[in-house]
Write a structure and sequence with these properties.
Blueprint (H helix, E strand, L loop, with lengths): L20 H8 L3 E5 L2 E4 L1 H20 L3 E2 L5 E3 H7 L10 E4 L5 E4 L4 H11 L8 E10 L14 E11 L2 H21 L4 E5 L9 E8 L7 E6 L5 E3 L20 E4 L6 H8 L6 E9 L2 E8 L6 H8 L4 E3 L2 H10 L18 E5 L8 E4 L5 E6 L9 E3 L17 E16 L1 H5 L3 E3 L5 E3 L1 E8 H11 L1 E2 L2 E2 L10 E5 L5 H16 L4 E3 L6 H11 L3 E5 L8 E5 L5 E4 L1 H15 L1
Parallel strand pairs: 3-7, 14-18, 15-17, 17-20, 27-28, 27-29
Antiparallel strand pairs: 1-2, 4-6, 5-6, 7-8, 8-24, 9-10, 10-21, 11-12, 11-21, 13-19, 14-15, 14-16, 18-19, 21-24, 22-23, 25-26, 29-30, 30-31
């Protein structure tokens, strides 16, 4: 491809709405253009990157015995009602009506469609196991599309679904997909870490995410990992061993005391001259439009995804002051926020974190403004609510699996795998005839890879102040050949000869034949992120060209034939 014919327009200025590096560079490098919030046109350079990622995915999925198909984007409401997700999926589900008033949705995922297909086509255990996958555009009505391809409303995803006769079969399928994913991302030039995660709206008993660790602040997820063993988890799913702390107060008896102007844990601890570790903190949330109270040790923070799961809610948020006062009034109290507690509260769900279980002679709100109960004990002064892990694990706390300690880094999720079990097959009456002649629900797994997210993650991981540093495996082209001056006959002749030889050898090459200054060509080459650059310039007087490696910045002076051979050898290593 000649640069003069390539459909690309680079930008010198950073677009004002581009927040993260990948968003900025993919716009500036001429890879995509915004059509609407979270919706982008993939230009030729980007499409080449995406097709390469797709091909790697296909090859590794096929090696593990998965079979590709293509399912409809438009999905009928009836299927989602069968699974129970139409009413609970949330506002991210893009809903529409056809001309007959029939309600539909644009697929954010395809559990319902694939389960219906299996229900209708798979009759016997003899047809199992099977793993079916597709690569397709998905749609989610994000409340705030941001970060370019990392959080859009339309994106490309590979989703696969396994069907097995039992849990043992699912374990095998899960392991196959974990193995395939590791190979896929390595072939894309990305080192990933498989971390434990929350199953979210997909559901299921076990799930893991594949994270690209960015080693910068540009990642969208916090990943906690052990400094000694392989434990790693998304912060919304991480557990830890808490550090030693004072858990018993020195109060002689349980009594209500005045605590004026102590609306925060810090103010209360300072007023009573006690550590925050012997305070039981009460937080009011709204879970699916209903109030709920979460109790946690004063020095700890609630992890809201964990709390949402504990409550079995689809959505949660912290309650407003007005909503807290309304809850107080309904229970006959008039306490202001900051003095709330569980005692005497009725018709409200109360859950507690495990961190409060061992508190003794502790302090807690008593639903009276400017007052707290001190010297409280569970089972004597206050009933101990349902216990769950709703705590946000912290850096420096103990690893849950060894004697190491937790560290933190930023990560970008590029893939996820779920053990769905019978969540969908039972709800949709998708069964097969087992070997014993009985009808049994399919045991399912679900496995996703964000194709467009993987491309964006590669940019987040590999870039510098000049532009993108694509891993050669997924770069749009392997090399750009740059004659310094299009008016110099020798430079143009040598550059064209190198270009033609590389093309014949199967190397993906661009010849920058534009009538531009050398500086413009070099800046565009770095911005676009060609992994290699061969420059025909002043060194031709010595019979040499410059061979530059974008990743390291290393420049070698080689003969034109040596440069061609070196580039051919590079490509052989990735084919």
């Amino acid at each position: 491809m000649k640069m003069s014919s390539l459909f690309v327009q680079t930008l010198r200025e950073v677009p004002s709405d581009a927040e993260v590096v990948s968003h900025q560079l993919l716009l500036r490098g001429g890879y995509m253009r915004k059509l609407a919030g979270g919706i982008y046109t993939y230009l030729p350079l980007m499409w080449r990157v995406l097709k390469k990622i797709e091909n790697i995915v296909r090859e590794e999925m096929d090696k593990e015995g998965a079979q590709e198909l293509l399912m409809p984007i438009v999905q009928p409401k009836e299927l989602w009602e069968q699974s129970g997700r139409w009413a609970v999926y949330g506002k991210e589900l893009m809903r529409l009506q056809d001309r007959h008033g029939k309600e539909m949705a644009l697929g954010p995922t395809h559990e319902e469609v694939i389960t219906a297909l299996a229900r209708d086509e798979i009759r016997s255990y003899r047809q199992l196991p099977v793993n079916l996958y597709q690569i397709q555009n998905k749609f989610r009505d994000e409340i705030r599309p941001r970060f370019g391809l990392l959080r859009g409303r339309e994106f490309i995803m590979k989703d696969a679904y396994s069907f097995d006769v039992d849990e043992a079969g699912l374990d095998v399928a899960y392991e196959k997909m974990a193995r395939a994913y590791t190979k896929i991302f390595l072939r894309c030039g990305l080192e990933t870490r498989m971390v434990r995660s929350d199953s979210g709206a997909i559901g299921g008993s076990v799930s893991h995410e594949f994270m690209v660790l960015t080693k910068t602040d540009s990642g969208e997820n916090d990943v906690l990992y052990c400094d000694k063993c392989s434990y790693a988890a998304n912060s919304n799913n991480a557990t830890s061993k808490m550090l030693p702390a004072e858990l018993t107060g020195r109060f002689e008896k349980a009594e209500i005391v005045d605590t004026p102007h102590t609306r925060t844990i810090e103010e209360l601890a300072e007023f009573l001259k006690i550590p925050s570790t012997i305070i039981c903190k009460a937080l009011v949330y709204i879970a699916d439009s209903k109030p709920a109270i979460a109790l946690i040790r004063g020095d700890q923070n609630v992890e809201e995804i964990k709390l949402q799961n504990a409550l079995g809610a689809n959505e949660i948020r912290i309650a407003t002051s007005e909503e807290i006062l309304e809850l107080m009034n309904k229970n006959g109290f008039s306490a202001e926020p900051g003095f709330i507690g569980p005692k005497g509260m009725k018709n409200v769900r109360i859950v507690a974190d495990f961190s409060v279980k061992d508190l003794k002679n502790f302090v807690v709100g008593i639903n009276q403004t400017d007052k707290h109960l001190v010297g409280a004990n569970w089972g004597v002064d206050i009933d101990l609510p349902e216990l769950f892990d709703i705590r946000l694990a912290q850096v420096g706390e103990g690893c849950p699996e060894c004697d190491g300690h937790l560290m933190i880094t930023k990560g970008i999720e590029v893939g996820n795998i779920f053990k769905l079990g019978t969540k969908y097959s039972k709800a949709m009456n998708a069964t097969f005839t087992a070997e014993d002649g009985k009808e049994k629900p399919f045991i399912m797994g679900c496995y996703g890879i964000g194709i467009s997210r993987t491309a964006a993650a590669a940019v987040e991981r590999y870039h510098d102040e000049h532009g993108i540093k694509w891993p050669v495996q997924i770069a749009p082209y392997h090399v750009v050949v740059v004659p310094v001056s299009d008016q110099d006959e020798q430079q143009m002749s040598v550059a064209s000869d190198i270009y033609e030889k590389l093309q014949k050898a199967g190397v993906e090459v661009v010849l920058d034949d534009r009538p531009e200054r050398a500086g413009v060509k070099f800046k565009d080459a770095d911005l676009i992120g060609f992994p290699y650059r061969i420059t025909a310039g002043k060194t031709l007087s010595e019979g040499l060209v410059e061979f530059k490696i974008r990743e390291t910045g290393e420049v070698m002076k080689l003969t034109p034939d040596e440069a061609v051979e070196k580039m051919i050898e590079v490509v052989k290593t990735i084919s």
